[in-house]
Each structure stands twice: as C-alpha cells, then as structure tokens.
Write a structure and sequence with these properties.
Elements (H helix, E strand, L loop, with lengths): L1 E11 L5 E5 L2 H14 L6 E7 L2 E10 L2 E5 L2 H7 L6 E8 L1
Antiparallel strand pairs: 1-2, 1-6, 2-5, 3-4, 3-6, 4-5
Length: 94
C-alpha cells in the first residue's frame, strides 16, 4: 500500500523531543484496514517514508485513533525542515 499526503511537522516536547507528522483521517482509515496483517508490537506499522529526496525506514506510531510519522533529525537537516513546515510524505507499507 502506498499513501501520499501533506502534513505539518510538529514537535513532541517530552524528555526526549521528537518531530512527527500526523497521517490524515482518511489515510488512517485505509491503514487500519491492513494493520492486522502488517503490525507488530503496540500497533506499530513498518513503512518506508519519503520526504523530498530523502527516503528512510521507520514505523508509524498509533496515537488516539491516528498514526504518527516520526521524522528524525538527519531527515530534517537534509530537507531543511523546521517545526510548522508543511511537507509532502509518501509512505510505502513494508
């Protein structure tokens, strides 16, 4: 399954801050239809993500009925991203 969407980069300011983009509701619905066959521990879904020219593997985090895409520092640096930027994300479920 491939999904493309635009979303805002936001930061979770916990003890170890992380940046995320929230998957929109319709795409979350689509992901839930296949989650049972691809998920592992705590409902995580393994994906390959692309923002701009940068591609990496990670897992979507389930949160309050949605999924979050974690965006690591090396990706933010490579794509010159900051909190509040709108990005186009392409997900490929692994």
């Amino acid at each position: 399954m491939d999904i493309t969407f635009d979303g805002e980069l936001w930061v979770w300011k916990g003890p170890a801050p992380w940046y995320f983009v929230t998957v929109p509701a319709q795409q979350c619905h689509d992901l839930r239809t296949i989650a049972g066959s691809v998920t592992y521990g705590w409902g995580m879904i393994p994906v390959q993500v692309r923002i701009g020219k940068t591609t990496w593997k990670t897992s979507l985090f389930p949160k309050d009925g949605s999924y979050l895409v974690p965006v690591k520092a090396s990706v933010r640096r490579a794509e010159h991203l900051e909190q509040g930027d709108t990005v186009t994300i392409r997900l490929e479920v692994c």
